[in-house]
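## retry 2 of 3
previous attempt timed out at serialization; input unchanged, resubmitting
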Amino acid sequence: MYLTKLLMKDFGKFHNKEVDLKPGINIIFGNQDSGKSTIRDFLIAMIYGVDRKEGISRVRSDYERRKPEGRSSYSGAAYIKKEGTNYLVERSFLAGAKSTSVLDVNSIRKKRLNIFRRRNSNIFRNHLSEDWMSLQRRSKNMMM
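## retry succeeded, writing output
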């Protein structure tokens, strides 16, 4: 199973932003404040949802941090390919209107896809992305 496309309808700084993904490892890079962390957080939100709880060290919750300013929508979608079948997963993150739907694109039928099991999103977040500085430190340590 892999994601083929992310559709950030209204998430963080993005409005109707599409990101195409390929099988394997995808590297997302850019200047500071270009949206790399927002894309990472969107991917996590598509899998786990967006938590409104504030953590001990967080100033604002993920919900507040990524909620689009000046827009009434807070949603996105992703295309997933699993065993030759294409699915469209759509999520609304808006408090009071949270929803998730999964559509089998081939048969145009709603489905239940068992990838949305509740797990620790922090573990996933830590394995999903690594900042450039920590990659540089790691490569220097490997050379010694």
